[in-house]
Amino acid sequence: MPILVTGATGTVGGSLVRQLVAAGHRVRALTRDPGSPAAAELPQQVEVVRGDFARPETLIPAFRGVERMHLVAMDGYGPLTTAPEILDLARRAGVRRVTHLGHDDPSRDDDDPLESESRAVKKAVEDSGLEWTHLFPGEFMANTWEWAESIKNEGVVRAPFGDWTSAMVHEADIAAVAMAALLHDGHAGRTYTPTGPEPVRRADAVRMIGRAIGREIRFVELTPDQAREHWKDVYPEIVIEWFLEMGEHPDMNAPVLPDVEQVTGRPGRTFARWAADHADDFR
Ligand SMILES: NC(=O)c1ccc[n+]([C@@H]2O[C@H](COP(=O)([O-])OP(=O)(O)OC[C@H]3O[C@@H](n4cnc5c(N)ncnc54)[C@H](OP(=O)(O)O)[C@@H]3O)[C@@H](O)[C@H]2O)c1
What we know:
Blueprint: E1 3-5, H1 11-22, E2 27-31, H2 37-40, E3 47-50, H3 60-63, E4 68-72, H4 83-93, E5 97-101, H5 113-126, E6 131-135, H6 148-154, E7 156-160, E8 165-166, H7 171-183, E9 190-192, E10 200-201, H8 202-213, E11 218-222, H9 224-231, H10 237-247, H11 259-264, H12 271-277
Parallel strand pairs: 1-2, 1-4, 2-3, 4-5, 5-6, 6-9, 7-11
Antiparallel strand pairs: 8-10
Helix pairs in contact: 1-7, 8-12, 9-10
């Protein structure tokens, strides 16, 4: 039976697909556009199917013959408001187990607009009647891809809060936790928070990318107002304000949690490793 991976053309889903295929599993990958360059990069053994969370009925063919699925709670930056319908269709089609990749910040109130959307998906997953496992990772190492163009073109990173310290996590470790929860018993009803194995200062992350590509990179620290301007065409305003608010608490993402090692049996990959794995993206 194939395992259905949604978000398969994305950062975590792509890694999950490759790890499942490498371990000999049949994978069905969901995308809104099977003709996209990202879909073309999926391993050739993978069955690629079209579907759009915004129109849950389009997922029915993807669920056929599937018992296990990975759900990325994502509809652009908008809420995955259709999660209850998606999960209901999945259950009725025979899906039994779901890993849910999303976001949860327990320090924020229920009525916070970003949190209320995520919590609605979380509740839909828990009410779905499926065996569920939540994955609420820390900050992705892959977020530093945002710096790729300015590193390639100018050897510079412009970002606020050089002292921001985060136990950023490699996408392959999030995917490895999802894979364990999909393949093995004992993860139902669990919530995992994959983090990296060490806290990394933002300015040090820049240096580590420089080391991986053999080039010195200059870090230019932006003020919050400069960051608003810098990000205005990249992120919605609500997300920018959330980033800036987090920046006022430079250690809030620093704690290293044991979940990756406990679930996979291996320590998480370091940022230096991530930079080496993705060095070509910054050259
Ligand atoms: N970045 C972080 O630091 C961070 C931290 C904690 C949690 N998270 C969570 O991680 C998740 C994002 O994971 P990611 O970075 O691996 O994703 P990503 O690289 O941004 O890729 C998004 C994926 O979602 C799919 N997708 C988007 N809208 C869709 C729709 N309407 N219907 C079907 N598929 C759709 C896309 O597929 P197609 O384009 O091929 O259709 C793509 O494969 C989010 O839930 C986020 O809250 C992120």
